[in-house]
Amino acid sequence: MTASDKRDILITSALPYANGSIHIGHMVEYIQTDIWTRFQRLRGHNVTWVWADDAHGTPIMMSARNNNTTPEALIAAMKREHEQDFIDFQLSFDNFHTTHSDENKQCVETIYKRLFDGGHIAVKTIEQLFDPEASMYLPDRFVTGTCPKCKTEDQYGDACESCGTTYDATELLNPKSVVSGATPVTKDSEQYFFKIDNFDTMLREWTSGDHIQPEMRNKIQEWFEGGLKDWDISRNEPYWGFEIPNAPGKYFYVWMDAPIGYMASHLNLLNGDTEALNKYWGKDSTAELVHFIGIDIARFHTLCWPAMLEGAGYRKPTAVHCHGFLMVDGAKMSKSRGTFIKARTYLDHLQPDYLRYYYAAKLNHKVENLDLNLEDFVARVNSDLVGKIVNIASRCAGFIYKNFDATLSAQLPDNTLFQESSTAAASIAEAYENREFSRAIREIIEQADKANQFIADQQPWNLIKQEDQHQQVQEICTLGINLFKNLVIYLKPVVPDIAKQTEAFLNCDEFSWSDLEQPLLNHKINKFKPMITRLESKSIDAIVEASKEDLKASNVAAAPVSGPLADDPISNQISFDDFARVDLRVATIVAADLVEGADKLLQLTLDLGGEQRNVFAGIKSAYDPSTLIGRQTVMVANLAPRKMRFGVSEGMVLAAGPGGSDLFILSPDNGAQAGMRVK
RNA sequence: GGCCAUGUAGCUCAGUUGGUUAGAGCACAGCAUUCAUAAUGCUGGAGUCGGUGGUUCAAGUCCACCCAUGGCCA
Predict the structure, then answer these.
(1) B54 C1' to A295 CA distance, Å
(2) Which segments in chain A show pLDDT lower than 50?
(3) Nearest nt (C1') from A298 Cα
(4) Helix (H, G, I), strand (E, B), or coil: what is residue A131?
(5) CA of A430 to C1' of B5 (A)
(6) Cα–Cα distance between A314 and A303 in angstroms, integer?
(7) pTM of this prediction?
(8) CA of A117 to C1' of B22 (A)
(9) Are A491 and A389 in contact (CB under 8 A)?
(10) Rounded CA gap, A373 and A350, in Å?
(11) Cα–Cα distance between A41 and A180 in angstroms, integer?
């Protein structure tokens, strides 16, 4: 590669929020970033990957308050945890910083000042909730009340957890201050707005180019049609963030300083050298600036962020790559199903290469969700990595080691296989470059299939029995080893651990892309050791189980101390289909009698509107049979009949309560008819 | 409610500008093989391409509506 071919690439991943642990959903993006980063390095480009913890905002302030700690202590502990997770997942970032840093304060203030001087900041007076007792403005999360839409009580001032509606805190019904319990009043408050509309023309042009995936352009178009409204970048104190210069009591909104955290992390890596920073961020920079993000934060990265950069006299991103969300077994990650898997829980059980490979095999350049199918995960990794790729080394190495003093032959057999393996490079590189990792993997596995076919075809295990065929065997296995070497170079961005073991096994320096062209000949190798063990489904079960344990542990803290929920916590989630299997019907009690010899049972005759059922119900302690006759109730109509000492019970009546005299059978409202289904 | 994306074999996915009989891997069945971490090779069965209607000589591919899933916004 000549100096002029060498690209300067600055890469970022989205900033994880410093208020929770990293999970395998985050890892989709970080692994995607890492594969692309490693690929570019393997090709010899000058790559820098910087990111940071997103360490500001009300949720962090609240968490610190609830845990009797300071925000500083909380984010410091979280940063250590996050960074260790990333290192252990073999992410090859150059710097992981925090948005609560001197560098970020410096960058935020610089950008804000430039925007202000450029006439891109407006000061407007808006109505905000104010706590008259604590005499302070209330952030959204410091107000609770009833959702204006679905009337669910005890919701925060930004969104309803029950119906998902987002609203202004001023719209809450019966609002209450979290701080004092007082009813807030509305009060005028000055806020600072970024006039993003000033950049309408620039943004329309910029987003119509190659910087954005085509499917994102449709989405962005919709935002333009809605009009670019002034963006409120300030928050009243108390707020956890940076104070706005010359605006006492006003703080930068977390989403203002978060993306600037990319720049600040870079500045931190450069030890504060702003000239070096400008080489990447200056208006005329020729370096590439590439962001990897999830679709949920696309709006900030495709509109707010480029506008801020433009307004402050910096360059705009080369590309903003969006990905979808992680699904596990076709559904959203679920805590109760044990599919909300923390990065650490995964690492406690498995090496990163497995998950890295599986994600790579499914990632593409589109904004699609990625489904982690746990059964498929096991099958895919075992079949591809163990059965196909590493097996090539395993089946050739023995011959070389035992019969040829661990030395590869001086020449390859007379065929074009090695040539083919090298020329696949162009297409595989193109796939990596365009982030079509699944295509890259498909093409790599095709090469592996060819290698295995070749070995099966040549049958070295038969040839070795003939003395005069020994050189042939050495050459066949040398080719096998060299095909394996190329496969590992192709896979090096994806499975760094296997690549490292292969370099040691083959006695080689660190592989680079250019090593694809030259076969190893007359070269001594080491004894083959298994590089990766087969994935067992019991490991997956253990991860799922451990993830359920995590849930239990976190539930203990939040569980109510007394009351029905404390005595009998809510069961694991079920699907609608599970529920639908239970056939509940309205029934009329036409007869109710004491059962001779039974302490707790009443014998009920239930009418389902044409069909009568005999049911034994354990409600004698709470009900006099004569008061039940003529009442309607609800029964499970498709419960398997059960033989009891006093007869067969053909269903079950629904009742609530712990027992004894505290039992309450259900009744439908007036008008229900016997036999109606409850659903 | 509006919008965006997705829906192809049991599972995970390819299917370029509409053009022969819709492909691959895994799983399954049979055969071969035993160098290899029970790994590998060959052969085979398996699909009303979410549904309905339309455009066309021709639709998995284009259009309309509907359904399901995921998401964004209100």
Answers:
(1) 34
(2) 555-564, 566-569, 572
(3) B72
(4) strand
(5) 25
(6) 15
(7) 0.81
(8) 61
(9) yes
(10) 16
(11) 55
